[in-house]
Amino acid sequence: MRRASLVLTLWLAAGAASANPPTERDLSAGWRFRLAQGTQAGAHADLKDWLPAHVPGAVQTDLLALKRIEDPFWRDNEASLQWIGLSDWDYRLDFDVDAATLARGHVDLVFEGLDTFAEVSLNGKKLLSADNMFRRWRLPVKDTLHKGSNTLQVHLQSPIGKLLPWLMKQPYSLPGEFDSAFGDEPKGKQTSNYVRKANYQYGWDWGPRYVTLGIWQPVRLESWDTMRLADFHVAQKHVDADTAQLEGQFDLRADKGGPVTLTVDWTAPDGTHGHEERSVALAKGENHLALPVTIAHPQRWWPLGYGEPNLYTFHAEVSADGQAVAGVDRHTGLRSVELRREKDQWGRSFAFVINGVPVFAKGADLIPYDSFPSRVTPERQEALLRSAHDANMNMLRMWGGGTYLEDAFYDAADRLGIMIWQDFMYGGAITPYDEAFRQSARIEAEEQVTRLRNHPSIVIWAGNNEVQTGWDDWPDRQDFRKFVNADEVKRIDDGMRELFGKTLRKVVSDLSPSTPYWASSPSTDFDGPANVETDGDYHYWKVWSGSEPISHYLDMTPRFQSEYGLQSFPVMATIKAFAKPEDMQPESKVMRAHQKFANGDGNQRLLLYIRQEYGEPKDFPSFVYLSQVMQAEGIELAAEHLRSKRPQNMGTLYWQLNDVWPGASWASVDYFNRWKALQYHAKRFYAPVDVVPQRRDGKTTVFAVSDRTTDFDATLRLRVYDMAGKMLRESSQPVRAAALASTGVLTLDDAALLKGADPKRTVVSFDLIEQGTTVAHHLLYFGAARDLALPKPELTWNVSDGGHGLVVTVSAKRLARAVWVDTQDLDVRLSDNAFDLLPGESRQLDVQGTTDLETLRRTVSAMSLVDALKEGKQ
Ligand code: BMA
User: Fold this and answer.
1) Are 692 and 703 in contact, with CB atoms under 8 Å apart?
2) CATH class of 795-868
3) Does the beta carbon of 563 sit less than 6 angstroms from any atom of ligand 1?
4) Fewest CB within 10 angstroms: 118, 169, 569, 816, which?
């Protein structure tokens, strides 16, 4: 949440004799911390003395840096580190202030973020009781500071320690998400509902329980004299191909009135520029001033696959008496966003229309990058977004149980053309209805929307994740409704309707009116029940959570599927980062500790799905590999089905892109940004053009799916192979692939495809060929992998210098299913992986990253499905 702070310069009010430029002094260095008196001090007496602290940071990461605790992610260390979040902590900074600072008109102490219950005092005077992790705090401190040494103290109270005694006395506890696995909160007594703090830190079904405390965002002193430019925003009133009608909106705080000139200078990506200015009379107090800007034929911002993610630079300035007194730069993209909801034969549409083009959303859900937010660097944020971009994802949904990310994340999304579906940070817990909670939520939303509204990547704000559907449908909430009296249930219900239906909606419509608001994911925006196939967005969990077979994905065609997922383990190199050799089995204590679904039972769910489709894993590494193959092929089936159903369906976001720690989860990219098989599949199944052979009940329909904005002509080539080597047949037919559409090309039954060949030994290859180039390729099998007679493929591989970099070439003599090229823990990525090879086929894989030919040659290996299964089981 580190914000790009405004570059403040001075304003010399007419009549004022002199003024100095505003200054910002970073107060992040020099902090110390200690265990607060009275909490756990007996067991941790060594932490009673002051120790060096990182700001921004958290107590847990500081204790790790000081080697006072073991790595929180190693083995099952999580259980023994819960005491940290149950303790209170003190932070202290001694800093000098000079006379010049004290002579300023204003000196503000700014905390960008405090985690979470924080008592702030300066020189012994209490200034603030903070209670919301997502808010920014600005405190006027001129009168509290003195010349020379000053002492700033922050006392952080354990959020559980503070709230639990209170909660235990209440007549009921609001239903939350995951109960503590460590007994620090009794079952059904979750305090996280009652505090604005990242929900996932209390433990989730993909991550550990680490309730952090700390000064998790930067701290600074801002000194200024008579005027402060609090914000500048480029509002997009209307944008189309011909014109962009914009408004530069200045938010100024002034001590006294007087004339000023506002200017906006803009530069387009091609270097074109323009200038607007306006003279205004400032009033004392708050000033919201607008300067209209019109740009002809704007170079618009486009999501990935539709054009360039063009960004303009806007320089805003305030001047008085011809002298610049405040200025700021903003980079933003010009685009229109419409959430199109029109009645049609399937119900009501749910489609993002960007610059007038209906865009099929392809992507995944994003969870926090780390259990400890302050150790996420801008580089890590960008690297993960690049992984999404390289897999042809044009949208990520930032799920509501985490934190709002810092500007660097959204800057990178802007540059890469990745649309962000932005949830407000509510992860599924039922919210309290009291006015104080709602006011805190409103201010938080105003601050976050103001901070983020210049990012063209944000195309929707959504009130929460699964709060409405949970309240309506989940069994624990049903029980709760019976237990609590009807009036109270109504008050809770009204409170949520007020918060998500009105309060947050109003914040978005007031501060970012060109961005759509959506009450909850999934929902129909309070227009009837949530999570229905005919209207709104949809979360589908009968596969995985409900243990239904993967093929049931084909039964569902909602309007926009914003969640569905299958788990897997990360690659062995990542598992080795948290486990010892003796932990390497699905039911070991450590492997269960890193499997959060159903408190470790998720490993049996993985085995269920692996066995259904493939058979019995030979050993632990095979189990890991098979979990990834199962996940990749399962999600591919669903994603391609949804793409083939365009325009009835207009989006697939699978759960989930990334991980907070190394462990089993629904992620396609692991904690170390290593790609699982699914991410490689996504790169293919989210490609702009796809060929989708869909086999149901012995009949196969082939679709040509195209996100291109113009039609194109191609040839659909069909080749039938005996898995052991021979091509049995080939035929071709012309195809016109319609723009922004899924075109059904042909339907054939098994008999017509096989023409007597053995379905267990036959595979069909479909290729979409445009002017001699294959633009899409897909294989089709006649049954589950475990029922096929897969041959031993005799895989070979070698490493060579391809001139442009290293190349791994893999070849198969006979059909090879789910080839995985493993590079262990080398810091490299392959251009492709997790693919099938036809008999006699070779594939060349470019190697990105740092290694050398010899090292790679020694390290690389390849395997396929038959290598992972127990003999006689396939
Ligand atoms: C979803 C999410 C998450 C959860 C995931 C996997 O519905 O919204 O809360 O982690 O399912 O169970």
Assistant:
1) yes
2) mainly beta
3) yes
4) 169
Distance CA 187, CA 182 (A): 10
Q: Measured from the CB, is residue 466 less than 6 Å from ligand 1? A: yes
Residue type, 15: G
Residues 112/1, Cβ–Cβ less than 8 Å:
yes
Ligand 1 atom index nearest CA of 539: 7
Cβ neighbours of residue 349 closer than 8 Å, sequence gap 6 or more: 340, 341, 342, 559, 647, 650
Cα 501 to middle of ligand 1, angstroms:
22
- Mean pLDDT value of segment 148-154: 98
Q: Is the CB of 205 under 6 A from ligand 1?
A: yes
Pocket test for ligand 1, best of 366, 521, 563, 599 (most atoms within 8 A of CB): 563
Instruction: Please report, for residues 408, 562, 805, 807, 823, the alpha-carbon distance to residue 849 in angstroms, rounded to integers and kept in the order given.
Output: 23, 32, 10, 12, 11
What single string gives the DSSP state of each residue in 125-143? EEEEEE-BTT--EEEE-TT
pLDDT in tens, 329-382: 999 999 999 999 999 999 999 999 999 999 999 999 999 999 999 999 999 999
pTM here? 0.97
Q: Give per-residue pLDDT as tens, 51-96.
A: 999 999 999 999 999 999 999 999 999 999 999 999 999 999 999 9
Tokens of 526: 């309070």
Expressed in angstroms, the distance from the first to the final Cα of the chain is 50
> E-assigned strands of 258-332?
258-267, 273-282, 285-296, 312-320, 323-332
Instruction: Give residue 73 CA to ligand 1 midpoint distance, Å.
Output: 21
Q: Is the CB of 421 under 6 A from ligand 1?
A: no
In the numeric block, the tokens 């503590």 are attached to 180
Name the pLDDT band for 37 (thresholds 50, 70, 90). Answer: confident
Choosing from 178, 201, 399, 473 the residue with most ligand 1 atoms within 8 A of its CB, the one to mutate for a pocket test is: 399
Q: Which homologous superfamily does the CATH classification assign to the domain defined by 23-220? A: Galactose-binding domain-like (2.60.120.260)
Spans of all domains in the chain? 23-220, 225-332, 366-679, 689-787, 795-868
- Identify which of 219, 284, 225 has the alpha carbon closest to the alpha carbon of residue 23: 225
Mean predicted confidence (pLDDT) in 429-446:
98
Ligand 1, atom 10, residue with closest C-alpha: 205
Class of domain 225-332: mainly beta
Cα(545) to ligand 1 centroid in Å equals 10
Structure tokens that stand for 201 in this block:
């830190």
> What is the CATH topology of the domain spanning 366-679?
TIM Barrel (3.20.20)
pLDDT at site 12? 36
Distance from the alpha carbon of residue 733 to the mean position of ligand 1, in angstroms: 43
Residue 22, preceding peptide bond in cis (omega within 30° of 0): no
